[in-house]
Amino acid sequence: MAEINFLSKPTNPIQTLGLGVFDGFHLGHKALSNNCDALLTFYPHPEFVLRKDTTLKLLTTIEERKAIFKNMFIIEFTKDFSKLTATQFLEDVIKKEINPKKIIVGYDFCFGYKREGDLSLLKDWGTKNNIEIETIEPFKHHGVIVKSSHIRESLKEGRFDEAIANLGHPYLIKGEVVEGENRGSKIGFPTANVQVDAKKLVPASGVYEGTVFYQDQKLKAAIYIGKKPTFGNFQKHIEVHILNFNKQIYGDILSVWLCKKIRSEKKFNSTQDLINQIQKDVKSII
């Protein structure tokens, strides 16, 4: 049998457990988690293990998911683990390792080798083991089912307000501050260049209003995502101008929450035109 490796475990006793991947932790996930003591999820995302040709980009890395919901069981998802039958997963993972009194899952939850486990099997197993099973109905926003795949498309295509409405919270980007070209400092707007996981979905290019959590501080920020067309760059960057902040933070981890898109990316005719626009951007969020 496959080795079951827990990367993270809550220390408190668990009564009610939610099961799922929870990428993005959107409104549907929140509805499921509201009555759970803990959630069980997987790392890496199963698609990265089962489909080597996948182009999937994550709404939330595992660190970001942990930041949004603290009490999580995280199981290492491997090829061997993926071969557990549905019954083995229930017996050897859920019952033996956690033993909750209640399990909550989404309406489309499947599990086990080749997704053989469905809601019917889960409910039958729950009855035999005296574990209550609850299914959450599809969560709809404006009549449309909220799904991670739809939110990914919204972010990629620049429909940021739509994505945020379905997430139910600002979009979190968590990453390390790395050294950049220092152009921002030279024009009076120093920025923290944030490097993220290669599998992270970075929203469409533009300027965003957001909030930064650094140590114990909550700070307003203007966030630029793009390729710096004014300076002829071609690689996508995430640059965070934190208002009223002047510290050297290379190597530190920043949690950046994108709240609102201010404008799309634009190529300026001169550096001064860029400075004038940045001044307007910053003024709009003060």
What fold name goes in the CATH topology slot of the largest domain? Rossmann fold
Order of helices and strands: EEHEHHEHHEHEEEHHEHEEEEEH
Unreliable stretches? none
Q: What number is the mean pLDDT?
A: 94
Using only C-alpha atoms, the radius of gyration works out to: 21 Å
Beta-strand content estimate: 25-35%
Number of domains: 2
Give the fraction of residues assigned to helices.
Answer: 25-40%
Strand order of the largest sheet: 1-4-3-2-5-6
Largest sheet: 6 strands, mixed
> Could you name the CATH homologous superfamily of the largest domain?
HUPs
Give the key terms.
286 residues; Elongation Factor Tu (Ef-tu), domain 3; six-stranded mixed β-sheet; six-stranded antiparallel beta barrel; 10 helices; 14 strands
Question: Would you mind describing this structure in some detail?
Answer:
Helix content is 29%, strand content 28%. The mean pLDDT is 94. It has two domains: 6-145, Rossmann fold (3-Layer(aba) Sandwich); 171-285, Elongation Factor Tu (Ef-tu), domain 3 (Beta Barrel), CATH 2.40.30. The longest helix is centred in the C-terminal third of the chain and has 15 residues, at 271-285. By secondary structure, it is of the alpha/beta class. Helix 7 (148-156) packs antiparallel against helix 8. The chain is built from ten helices and 14 strands.
